Amino acid sequence: MSAPADPAQLRDQRDQRLGTASRAAADAAETALWRLVSQIGSPEEALDQACAADPAWAWPPLMRAGHRLLQADGRLDDSTRVALAVASRHIEGAPPREQRHLAALQALAEGRCAAACQVWDDLLLDHPHDALALLWAQAWDLRRGELPPLQTRPAEVLPEWSPEDPLHPHLLGLYAFGLQENQRDAQAEEVARRALAREPQVPRAVLAVAHVMESQGRFDDGTAWLRQHQAGWADDSALAAHLWWHMGLFRLEALDLSGVHRLIDAHLSGTALVGDADHRDAVALLWRLHLLGEDVGARLVQLLAAWPADEGEAGLCAFHDLHVLLCLLGADELVRAERWVARVAARAMQAEDARRSNHAVTREVALPVMRALLSMARGDAGAACSALRASRPHWPRLGGSRLQRDLLELTLIAAAARAPQPALHRALLNARRLARAASPLLRHLEAH
């Protein structure tokens, strides 16, 4: 049982009990919360301030651990271990809500993402104003391809929130993103625009509309949309590189290949790439250029040098593993690519890996896809077509957004053209033609 709450403990702006009596610590944690939910600026300084103001409060180190686990796709580093250890030492007597967060993050640290999301979902039933439970459950469901909760979860809690809450527009952006991932594009765009009418700096709402426009082939609208809202996302947002990636997709749809190269030079290379997510975006855009016959090998070699494939982490995250493989193949590192896939397969064969949420998707989806990509790199496009088609219904389980997974659809189209399998190539383009507006890229794919 949880220890009784200390009557001196404060409450946050949403009347949720906090495990501290320090107003300075509570205020700093609120600032960190806003930065985490809005994805504007880094929460680290505010978390340092909260820890300094009340070193015995478990919540700030929990916030830090959750943030870092998300940035690293669940991979543990020393700083995350320390944050979890500090939180564990001080969790006795903490409010039950904070204790449940620790249980979720401990499950996450063990690779049990589904269990963590279940803890957060149960927590939200009792605490619908817990923004981090919502944010983190959404993020991890996206990573494991669980799309329906991305729409239903925010819908279940948003009516409980005051529209005057500073976090409310950002939660609308989260809801809009979930709607578009579930192919409710018109409603997603309406909700996102409503969020931006309330608050002009909501990067996730900008992102949701960009997804809608790209999925519909509205490349000119999308370019204009990102430029219109650029001041709200380009300078201090954790989504900046990803939104530049979207700008690259719009230019690619327009077949403005020189423009895509310029954008990569300016925003998706070198020191502009901060973490794994940024590097994956760069790989994904370069792979799309590679499929069009662009010579991007040197760029991918440079990217690989700055983002080495750590074989000890192979098999921990299917989405990450796939992008590392694409980088290796695009850099013409076939031997290293084969070794990478072998390391992923070896982890999937380990008995202790079976309890991790990533285990089944790696074995059942990621490995067949990666072996198909190896076949394509070896010149056997026919085998690649067969394997990709067989795995295609299961691609959402790899995680990532619809647009991020469209990379595999484009790869299958390219493999069908190379095999050649004209009937399959025609069928794939027929489906794409019905889903999207006509574009220079689509016309190019039809002609090649």
If you had to describe this structure to a student in words, what would you say it looks like?
Helix content is 67%, strand content 0%. The protein has helices at 23-38, 44-53, 59-71, 78-89, 96-109, 113-126, 131-143, 148-157, 168-181, 185-198, 203-215, 219-228, 240-253, 257-267, 276-291, 297-306, 318-330, 334-348, 358-377, 381-391, 402-418, 422-435, 440-447.
List the helices and strands and how they pair.
Layout: H1 23-38, H2 44-53, H3 59-71, H4 78-89, H5 96-109, H6 113-126, H7 131-143, H8 148-157, H9 168-181, H10 185-198, H11 203-215, H12 219-228, H13 240-253, H14 257-267, H15 276-291, H16 297-306, H17 318-330, H18 334-348, H19 358-377, H20 381-391, H21 402-418, H22 422-435, H23 440-447
Helix pairs in contact: 1-2, 1-3, 2-3, 3-4, 3-5, 5-6, 6-7, 7-8, 8-9, 9-10, 9-11, 10-11, 11-12, 11-13, 12-13, 13-14, 13-15, 15-16, 15-17, 15-21, 16-17, 17-18, 17-19, 18-19, 19-20, 20-21, 21-22
Name some characteristics of this structure:
448 residues; 23 helices
pLDDT average, as an integer? 95
| Gyration radius, in Å | 22 Å
Catalogue the unreliable spans: none
- As a percent range, the share of helical residues equals 55-70%
Shape: globular
Q: Approximately what portion of the residues adopt beta-strand conformation? A: under 5%
Largest sheet: none
Helix/strand order, N-terminal first? HHHHHHHHHHHHHHHHHHHHHHH
| End-to-end separation | 66 Å
